[in-house]
Amino acid sequence: MAGPSLRKGVSVLVTDRRIAWVRPTSDEPALPPDVRIIDAGGSTIVPGMVDAHSHLTLPGGSHWIDRGADPPEELLEVAEHNGDLLGRAGVRWARDVGSPLAVDPRDGRRRALALRVRERWRLDSARPRVRVAGTWISHSGVIPGGLLIEADDGPALLKAASTQLEDGADFLKLYLDGPKKEEAPWSTEDVRAVVDLAHGRGAKVTAHSGFLAGARVGIDAGVDSLEHGFELDSDAVAKMARQGTFLVSTLAIFRSWATFAQTTTLPRFVSDEGKERTARRRERAVESVQLAHRAGVRIATGTDFGGGSLRANHLAWEVEALVEAGLKPAEALASATIRGGELLGEAQAGRIIEGGPADFFLVHGDPLSDASALWRVWKVAWLP
Ligand SMILES: [Zn+2]
C-alpha cells in the first residue's frame, strides 16, 4: 500500500508479527479460529515511519548542545527514553547520524555511544530498528566539546573514516561546514577518497550541510546524501537529481527555534536579531527543499532530535513542515516512510506489504490529506 489516496474498508491479518494479508473487509477469507479482532474503525493504517536524521543518545530541547557533554551512562538512559518516544510516535526506524565518543567499559576504547544502543536494541522487537553512523567527523574549530573526531587534512580525514568503519559504523557522517561558512572544510578530492573507501567496504557516506560551499564539495565528491541542505542552489539540486543523491530535510528545527522565542530566555532565540536570523535561515532552507523537490531529488526526512532541539516523538512536525514547503501530504508522508527506507537500503521499511513485518500504526484521521493526523497515534502494532 503506497498510493496517494486513502483506501477505505481494509482488513489486515497479522500472524507472528508479519502481515499475512491485506484485503477489502467485504472480501475477508475465513479467519483462523483463535484470531483476535481489533476494531480500528475510523483510523488509518500508516506504515511505521523512518526518522532519517536522529541522534538516539541525546535528549534535544533548548540546551541541546550542552546535553552532549552529560555522562555516558546518563546518555544511555536518554536513548532508552528516546526509544519509547519513537515507538509511541509510530517511528519504526531511526537513522542515527552522530553520537558522542565515550569510553566503552567492555574494552576501554572510545567509540560512538549509539553503537552500544544498537547492540542493546538488536534483539528487542519493541525497540526501533536502527542504523548508526558512528561519531561526527569534523574539521577542528567547528563543533565544541571534544566528543567527536576532528580531521584537518585529507590523510587525517581518511584515517578518521577508517576508524569509524572499524568500530562498526553502518555509514559515515562528515560535517561539511567548515570554520568559515564560505569555505568547505576539505577538498572534493579528500572527500571523494572517503566516499571510495566507504563504498569499497559496502558503507554509505552522508554529510551535514548547512552552507552552499560544503554542499557543493559533498555533491561533487559523490556522497550518498546531504543532511539539512539548508543552502542549495539550482545547480546543486540538478546534480543531486542526476546522481541520485538524497536530501534529508530537517525543516522543523526552525519551527522549534521559533517556539523557544516564547518559552525560553535565551538571547539567541528571544532577541529581535535572533528571531530575524531564524526567520531568514528558515526561508532559505524552505527554498532549498522546494528547489530540490522541483528538480526531482529524492527527499527523506528527519527530526534531528537530540543533535538539534526537537524531541524524539516529533517526526509529525517535520512532515507538516514539508507540506508547508509545498509537498503534497502524500509526498511528505512518503519522505517519512518509503524514501527513508530507500535511503537506508531497506526495501520493506516504510511500507505495508503482504509477507513483510507488521510495522504499522494507527492514527485518527487521514494523513494523506492532513499531515497533522500523524500526531494522533492510537495504536502501534509492534508495541504491546
Ligand atoms: Zn543532526
SS elements, strand count: 17
Spatial shape: globular
- Range of helix content: 25-40%
Tell me the radius of gyration: 21 Å
Which stretches are low in confidence, meaning pLDDT under 50 for 5 or more residues running?
none
What's the assembly state of these chains? single chain
Mean pLDDT: 96
Order of helices and strands: EEEEHHEEEHEEEHEHEHEHEHHHEHHHEE
Ions and ligands: zinc ion
Mind summarizing the main beta sheet? 7 strands, parallel
Q: Can you count the helices?
A: 13
Taken as a percent bin, the fraction of beta residues is: 15-25%
How far the N terminus sits from the C terminus, by CA atoms, comes to 24 Å
Name the structural class: alpha/beta
Strand order of the largest sheet: 10-9-11-12-13-14-15
Topology of this structure?
Elements: E1 10-15, E2 18-24, E3 43-47, E4 49-54, H1 64-67, H2 72-88, E5 91-96, E6 101-104, E7 109-112, H3 113-121, E8 129-132, E9 136-138, E10 149-150, H4 154-167, E11 171-175, H5 188-200, E12 204-209, H6 212-221, E13 225-228, H7 234-243, E14 246-249, H8 252-263, H9 267-270, H10 272-295, E15 299-301, H11 315-324, H12 329-335, H13 338-344, E16 360-364, E17 377-380
Parallel strand pairs: 4-5, 5-8, 9-10, 9-11, 11-12, 12-13, 13-14, 14-15
Antiparallel strand pairs: 1-2, 3-16, 6-7, 16-17
Helix pairs in contact: 2-3, 4-5, 5-6, 7-10, 8-10, 11-12
The protein binds zinc ion.
Zinc ion binds near residues 53, 55, 97, 307 and 308.
